[in-house]
Amino acid sequence: IFLAIVVSRMSKAINKLRIASLLPSTTDICISLGLHKHVVGITHECDFDPSTYSMLTVRDANLSSSSSTTDNQPTAKPPSTLTVSHIDIHTSSQAEIDDAVKNSVHNGLSLYNLNDTALTDAKPSVILTQSLCDVCAVAKDEVDTEVACNFRPGQCKVISLEPESLEEVVDTFVTVGETCGVPERGEELKAKFWSDVTKVQEAVSLSSKRKEGKQLPRIMFLEWLDPPFDAGHWIPDMFEWSGCTSSLDSSQKPTRKSVRILWEQLYDCDPDVVLIGCCGFNLKRNMMDSIQAMDKLKPLRAFREGRIYAADGNLFFARPGPALREGIAILARCAYDDEDVVREALDELSFLPKEGNGWAQVHFPAKEKKLSIPDVEDLVTSDTFFELHQEACEANEDFYADPTSGYNVFTEVAHKKRGKCCGSGCRHCPYNHVNLKDKTMIQQPAFLYEGTDNANGGAFISSLSSIPPNSHIKVLFFSGGKDSYLTIRKLVQQKLQSNGTYNFHLILLTTYDFETKVIAHQDVNIDTVCRQARHLEIPLLGIPLHRSSGEEYLSRIEKGLDAVRSAIPDMKQLTLVFGDLHLEHIRQWREKELSKYSLEYPLWKIPYTELVDDLEASGVNIVVSASNQDGIGVGTTFSRTLWQDATKMGIDGFGEEGEFHSVAEVWTTSKEQALGLKL
User: Fold this and answer.
1) Contact yes or no for 85/91 (Cβ under 8 A)
2) How many CB atoms lie within 10 A of CB 397?
3) 504: left (phi over 0), alpha (psi -120 to 50) or beta
4) Which helix (H) or strand (E) holds 219?
5) CA-to-CA separations, 500 to 8, 492, 495, in angstroms, rounded
6) Is 423 left (phi over 0), alpha (psi -120 to 50) or beta?
7) Where would I find the H helices in 21-93?
8) Residues 662/623, Cβ–Cβ less than 8 Å
């Protein structure tokens, strides 16, 4: 009778169970425990599809969508998405993500936030979260605050999981089971996990190396590539279960966390095998990033011997959940790929993903392919978030779903509610990214360099803060090449020759591809243009162009000019300046599309001989940055001789038709000489 009463009470309790899972790993654990029908809220990163779930499960999991459940949970409604991210990892490079994380930590902000309305509406009785890493999930403090503000005392239980070792990870299966009223399932899942990974140990015990007492395979697991980070938390424990050892000496490592390492450290430790499983990325992304990092990986013996592999780091390594079983099997399969007997034994394990499905050897191209940089008009695609954002703002909504990744993205409306720039480089920041430390991370037009207050460039080179009211502002469309540079020198000459009657203040404006940070056609990185601006001490406005935005080029330019107006609200006149030389159709297009502005072309139809004379007088080194001509190589110095040779080849001597492009290395001489401040 007593047992019947206990079972009855447990049944009633589980029927009332409503789980909010704020971690992909706890969502996986819930599915493995057969609690998926009680999950009412998940994160934007969760893979919630119980019908296709292939990870470790208990016997009573009942994952089929049509199957009945002993829990009698009446709700079949899909769980709500409870979190949003300030960065889209699918469209950002690893370096950009790393910078965003650093800025977030520096400013005491999380990359993730709760949708408090969705959380309240979900009415969870249990919230599963963590306080191990604020980079990876919503901060525990934010969860506690939301619960305190929106739930009655005792209405919702918050369970924070903080596993650091593999054993602690597996113990969380029991913790979740006990919290949710199914302790026996938690124990069963724990026992099955250890039973299965023991089978991996049995397979690698067949190794001839182990039998002969030789050194175990030395593996380097990279949780990040740019910059490189080693394996942390539970992954070193996974090495042991897979029959491997770390190639890095971890005896002096003060923490179990993943830490940044230098490429030189990686070269010095000379691993037998490298497995790239970057946190948050699937196999496809890790394969792509591995190939892009080929130059960094080339010095490794593992590269030469074909022992570099990539894996779904997001599912099989970063998440402290049941899928670590598969991760251990993958580690062993890569480490012992050169031993037939071990490889065959591992391939017999039902839970080892097949090569190409979760892990794969990285096949590097025989030679690097040069990436072509599209022109500004090619950066707009039909896969648009621009219109989605506009519609969301018109509806006064705080976020919309990105059409590429499916992630929720904060709108300008949400950012204005916050009232300030958070410094994370948000896609729709309305504050000109004023608090963003690394300005190359901007997603909206913003000043990459504001000038210096002690600039000695006459009346037209000043920092933004020192430009007086009622000034004439000239905005030069600047690519970093010789034509743009010569335009600056021509403006200086006009000013010096005017005897004080030609007063204005100069700002540079540069458009570039947000993803690659490269200027169209020029093959010049925006960092180089920032260096030019700092040397010349001229303010620089950056306008990143998004390939998948659907926003037109002119719309982005207008937003950039709005940023100028915001920085200098009391200007008297705004003039747009271009370094065009003689192409009539380009000038006609500008005058048609930008007709509401005053436009200037200081170099228009000036003879090339005069332009070459001025380049020589500047003392600045001009280097070819891109070329489609066999006789003009990238890295070649542009000179009078090259101009003459190009003309003899039958092409425009200045590459005005797109034959070649250049970058002006203004730092090769003093600012005063580069600008031509003396007549």
Assistant:
1) no
2) 13
3) beta
4) strand 218-222
5) 93, 12, 7
6) left
7) 24-32
8) yes
Residue 409's nearest CA partner among 430, 431, 392 is 392
| Peptide bond before residue 227 is cis, with ω within 30 degrees of 0 | yes
pLDDT in tens, 373-392: 334 444 444 457 888 888 98
d(CA 329, CA 346): 7
Quote the pLDDT of residue 230.
93
Res. 474: pLDDT tops 80: yes
d(CA 407, CA 45): 8
> Using CA atoms, how far apart are residues 30 and 26, in angstroms rounded to an integer?
6
**pLDDT of amino acid 460:** 63
Q: Which of 87-91, 93-97, 289-293 has the highest mean pLDDT?
A: 289-293
Measured in degrees and rounded to the nearest 5, phi and psi for residue 630 equal -60, -35
Residue 639 pLDDT? 94
Q: Averaged over 554-559, what is the pLDDT?
A: 92
Task: Could you list the beta-strand ranges (E) of 262-396.
Answer: 273-276, 308-311, 359-361
**Beta strand segments in 443-534, E:** 446-449, 472-477, 505-513, 518-519, 524-525
Amino acid at 592: K
Compute the chain's Rg from CA coordinates: 30
Cross-strand partners of 518: 525
Structure tokens at 411: 């709108």
HSE of 527 in the Cβ direction (CA atoms, 13 Å)?
4
Question: How many CB atoms are closer than 10 A to CB 308?
Answer: 25
Q: Are strands 112-114 and 83-85 parallel, antiparallel or unpaired?
A: antiparallel
Please list the helix, strand and coil fractions of the chain in percent, rounded to the nearest 5, in that order.
Answer: 40, 15, 45
Of 149, 163, 165, 154, nearest to 114 by C-alpha is 149
Whether 311 contacts 277, CB under 8 Å: yes
pLDDT recorded at residue 203 = 96
**Count of CA atoms in the C-beta half-sphere (13 A) of 103:** 25
DSSP letter at 538 equals -
pLDDT of residue 157: 92
pTM: 0.56
Reply yes or no on whether the pLDDT at 31 is more than 80: yes
pLDDT of residue 93: 85
Rounded to 5 degrees, φ, ψ at 405 are: -95, -25
Q: What is the mean pLDDT of residues 100-117?
A: 78
CB hemisphere CA count around 582 (13 angstroms): 11
pLDDT of residue 231: 92
How many Å apart are CA 30 and CA 256, to the nearest integer? Answer: 26
pLDDT tens by residue, 409-440: 889 998 898 888 887 788 888 888 888 877 77
Name residues whose C-beta falls within 8 Å of residue 27's C-beta, 6 or more positions apart in sequence: 21, 39, 42, 43, 46, 47, 48
Per-position DSSP letters for 131-189, written without gaps between them:
SS-TTTS--HHHHHHHHHHHS-TTT-EEEEE---SHHHHHHHHHHHHHHTT-HHHHHHH
Q: Order of strands, edge to edge, in the sheet holding 126-130? A: 80-81, 39-42, 19-21, 126-130, 157-161
The bridge status of strand 308-311 relative to strand 359-361 is antiparallel
Going by C-alpha positions, the residue among 523, 225, 527, 512 that lies closest to residue 370 is 523
pLDDT in tens, 264-322: 899 889 999 999 999 989 999 999 999 989 989 988 999 989 999 999 999 999 999 99
